[in-house]
Design brief:
Helix content is 14%, strand content 30%. It has two domains: 4-120, L,D-transpeptidase catalytic domain-like (Beta Barrel); 134-181, Membrane-bound Lytic Murein Transglycosylase D, Chain A (Roll), CATH 3.10.350. The protein has four helices and twelve strands; from the N terminus they run βββββββββαβαβααβ. The strands form three sheets. It has an eight-stranded mixed sheet with strand order 3-2-1-10-5-6-7-9, with helices on one face. The protein has a two-stranded parallel ribbon with strand order 4-8. It has a two-stranded antiparallel ribbon with strand order 11-12. A hairpin with a 7-residue loop joins strand 6 (66-70) and strand 7. The radius of gyration is 16 Å and the shape is globular. The chain has helices at residues 101-107, 134-137, 148-154, 159-166; strands spanning 11-16, 21-26, 29-35, 38-39, 48-57, 66-70, 78-80, 91-93, 97-98, 116-120, 139-141, 179-181.
Length: 184
């Protein structure tokens, strides 16, 4: 089987259903991480290795501003924006992966038809098979009660550095289990 990291310009998406996080990798380098809403227990998000098969700008309605359809058999599943931003971070969808519109708009131009998408139930965001540990990868897993300001201070970084590297637009919106990349 072809290594999923080597296809589609070396980029891939990893989705962790447990932490409700989507991470975008360019090669082995994590470049973006976003909170997502995923399937509820009665209509779970399928787990497995898929690819992006279609991209649509302005699909409208509940799909928000962008749609990236996935090669999941027996259904119409995708990564998309939402007209219900309060659903992000929950188990709320019919199986699709929901993103804030501003986040999916940042991700959309980086993703190409054929980009691999790995959807996993596990606890680690990096499901690529990489041997990097969290410490080596320069990441921090948000704990209950932590703020982005506290995390920045702990690692001797500025808030702006963390916001930029993690593509976070609102420093007040982080949650337990979220992966924060710590720049070197």
């Amino acid at each position: 089987m072809l290594d999923i990291r080597m296809r589609s310009y070396g980029s891939y998406i990893a989705i962790n259903l447990n932490t409700r996080r989507l991470t975008f990798y360019e090669g082995e380098r994590l470049t973006s991480t976003y909170p997502v809403g995923v399937g509820k227990s009665s209509t779970p998000t399928p787990v497995g290795d898929f690819t992006v098969v279609v991209k649509i700008i302005s699909p409208g309605g509940a799909l928000g501003t962008r749609w990236m359809g996935l090669s999941i058999p027996n259904g119409n599943y995708g990564i998309h924006g939402t007209n219900n931003p309060s659903s992000i971070g929950g188990y709320v969808s019919n199986g699709c992966i929901r993103m804030y519109n501003q986040d999916v708009e940042k991700l959309f131009p980086k993703v190409h038809i054929g980009t691999p998408v790995k959807i996993r139930p596990g606890a680690a965001d990096n499901q690529s098979g990489s041997n990097l540990t969290q410490k080596q990868a320069g990441v921090h897993i948000v704990q209950s009660g932590e703020t982005l300001w506290q995390i920045a201070s702990r690692y001797g970084k500025t808030l702006d550095q963390l916001l930029s590297v993690n593509n976070i637009s609102n420093p007040d919106v982080i949650f337990p289990g979220q992966t924060i990349v710590i720049p070197k």
